[in-house]
Amino acid sequence: MNEHSPVREIKGIGEKTEKLFQKMGVYTAGDLLRYYPRTYDIYEAPVPVSELEEGTVAAVEGCVFGSVQVSPNRKLQTVSALIRDLTGTLKVLWFRMPFLRNTLRSGSRIIVRGRVVNKRGGLVMEHPEIFQPVEKYQEKLNTMQPVYPLTAGLSNLTVMKAVREALEHIHLQRETIPESIRQRYHLCEYNYALRGIHFPADKTMYMYARKRLVFEEFLEFLLAIRQMKEEKEMSVNGCRMEKKQEVDDFLSQLPFELTNAQKKVWKEIRKDMQGDYTMSRLVQGDVGSGKTIVAVLALLEAACNGYQGAMMAPTEVLARQHYQSICEMFEQYGIPFRTELLTGSMKAKERREAYERIETGESQIIIGTHALIQEKVNYRNLGLVITDEQHRFGVRQREALAKKGNMPHILVMSATPIPRTLAIIIYGDLDLSVIDELPKDRLPIKNCVVDTGYRETAYRFMKKQVEEGRQCYVICPMVEESEAMEAENVIDYSTMLSERMGPEVTVGYLHGKMKQTQKDEIMEKFAQNQIQILVSTTVVEVGINVPNATVMMVENAERFGLAQLHQLRGRVGRGAFQSYCIFMTASRAKETKKRLDILNHSNDGFYIAGEDLKLRGPGDLFGIRQSGLMEFKLGDIFQDAGILQMAAEAASSEEIREFPVYGRADRDNIHVL
Ligand code: ADP
Ligand code: MG
Fold first, then answer.
1. Could you tell me the distance, in angstroms and rounded to a whole number, from the CA of residue 328 to the centre of ligand 1?
2. What is the pLDDT of residues 173-213, one digit of tens each?
3. Is the CB of 296 under 6 A from ligand 1?
4. What are the strands of the beta sheet with 382-387, ordered from one edge?
5. pLDDT tens digits for range 222-264
6. What is the DSSP string of 92-150?
């Protein structure tokens, strides 16, 4: 067996399990080895009952106090006991384990470990693991058990066993980092790192393993960027454009004036497109800063110069939204160019017709998803390519779009709040423009962080907003374990909310498992205000623009990264109405409160990202990832800024250039930037 062997060859994996693994993107033994745990279960020292916190998993050591009860409910037989230590008494429940009545003796010492929840005002531990005699806990103390991303039918234990098998039977030889560099930055060997990331003996081993793998991830990424940059460096502008009066006329007809920041960025773009070299520019601007209109101006200028312009968005919903708003604007201001929409869910016939109009040049502006880079699409004269919400794409995809033309200009839009120093490393191949100002008419969003007791008040508030003609979003908590469960969750929630809101309010829902046409339909209805409250997973997080929506309520806000919450919040406050953001949290942990307070007091994405990092500190590796930012497998550009810096140094070193894998860096695997 080697890294390329199908997972089926691993002992214990049959056809059924193989299918489940494939569903999770694991095809080969190598994929499995790189299927990293999403977190770890750490058996920490027991804590006193008085210090237990709601929502955490903890161990408690004490004596069984009084008699053990078995509830008469046949459907869900519950065993309950009281555990007492010097600081207090804790109620503990087990489900469907009636035999425990005979093993738990009043007065005996015991350690229980499980989740602490709040039930009718008191803390209760649910279905804990039992350690008796208490010495048994010693064996597990401080060990870290991997917790893998799962799907229905695939258990954590199955994944653990498979990974263990693979680690045992694959002879690993791969070393992608030169010895001298490993020594300089204290990086462990590849084999050790793989073992350490799956089955760390302790935290130290985990930290070393992770550091090495994150370093490697960053290094490969940086090398790929560098290579691209070298290929492209100073390419002569083959799509030279002139300043067109039509674009200025269009601009003067818009119902608003550009902000100074927008004007400045538009000027930079224009100058690039006229200049001697091909443009490669990143436009960074916080959510709602008005990046789209700048992109539209660039597309229009390209079209006026006789070139095609294409804009790629990460989701169909977003692509369609851009398409519609451009069509509306062009119609309203009498712009004669044809705009084309190209997405994966279009019918074959529609798509063929679109291809044809693109190939003949009948369509000058093309908006779409990944469909834009399909092999069958031939552009006639592609002079400008734009990627919106860039952090969702791989380097490869941006490159693929550019290859559809003959060295077209490249414009990249991103709302990712990255400090300039980091941006220069990450987007090393791009020039940087920043829109650091929001349109003047915006009222700052009013925020509140509340506990679940406030839910009814929040519903009443939303109902009132709807009565005033506004619309609302409700974000359901993520269900990490499976998409199917997540979908169920969203549907249940929206049914409940619909009943609660009464017949005058239409509640719709959106989740990742829906078919594209269904999603479009829902978004369309929401945009038209036929749906007033949209219950959704985070699929609405990127880019969606419905200025009439004024309330964003996020359930289980503690489960999201701050940057992601900031993106979600960016869906409201996009028009002239006062908007509100309600962060609902069930957790009473102080940490959570502190984190959410940052959002509560600032609407500035850059500031939030910085504070979040400060609060968690670079050492906190188990914190919530800044998910949605850069989709590195393990690395996080904020948390691991130090490692990123090291990798950047290493990427420019001589040793790397001489190392055989350089140039072979697997660029297809890079899904970042
Ligand atoms: P983002 O930067 O998040 O992509 P959008 O480009 O979607 O933001 O813009 C958000 C909203 O602000 C849109 O409805 C857009 O029409 C509007 N907008 C853009 N620029 C201005 C401006 N200068 N003045 C007023 N409204 C603007
Ligand atoms: Mg946008």
1. 15
2. 667 888 999 999 999 999 899 999 999 988 889 999 999 99
3. no
4. 339-342, 365-368, 308-312, 382-387, 409-414, 280-285, 431-435
5. 887 777 667 666 678 889 999 999 999 999 999 999 999 999 9
6. EEEES-TTHHHH--TT-EEEEEEEEEEETTEEEEEEEEEESSTHHHHHHTT-EEEE---
% residues pLDDT > 90 (the chain): 46
Beta bridge partners of 84: 63, 89
DSSP per-residue letters across 366-431: EEESGGGG-TT---SSEEEEEESSGGGS-HHHHHHHHHTSSS-EEEEEE-----HHHHHHHTTTSE
Whether 258 lines ligand 1, by a CB cut-off of 6 Å, is yes
Q: Which atom of ligand 1 is nearest to the CA of 435?
A: 2
Q: Stretch 510-534: mean pLDDT, rounded?
A: 88
The answer, yes or no, to whether any atom of ligand 1 lies below 6 A from the CB of 292, is: yes
The residue contributing the CA closest to ligand 1 atom 15 is 290
Q: What pLDDT does residue 593 have?
A: 82
416 lines ligand 1 (CB under 6 A): no
Type of residue at 279:
M
Residue 186, classed as helix, strand or coil, is coil
Tokens at residue 104, please? 């738990």
Per-residue b or e along 158-186, where b marks 16 or more CB atoms closer than 10 Å to that residue's CB: bbbebbbbbbeebebeeeebbeebbeebe
Q: Which of 438, 449, 379 is nearest to 408 (CA)?
A: 379
User: What is the tens place of the pLDDT at every residue in 433-470?
Assistant: 889 888 887 888 899 999 888 999 999 999 999 999 99
Least confident of 341-355, 501-515, 585-599, 609-623: 609-623
Share of the chain above pLDDT 70, in %: 89
Return the H-helix or E-strand segment holding 63.
Answer: strand 57-70
User: What does the CA dihedral 544, 479, 75, 68 come to, rounded to 10 degrees?
Assistant: -130
Query: Which is nearest to 627 in space by CA: 610, 639, 641, 615?
Result: 639
Taking residue 382's Cβ as centre, other Cβ atoms within 10 Å add up to 26
- Give the mutation target among 260, 287, 292, 328 for probing the ligand 1 site: most ligand atoms within 8 A of CB: 292
Question: What mean pLDDT comes out for the span 363-381?
Answer: 91
**Alpha carbons 658 and 673: distance in angstroms, whole number:** 26
Given the CA of residue 325, which atom of ligand 1 is nearest to it? 16
Q: Give me the amino acid identity at 183.
A: Q
Q: What is the 457 CA–ligand 1 centroid distance (Å)? A: 31
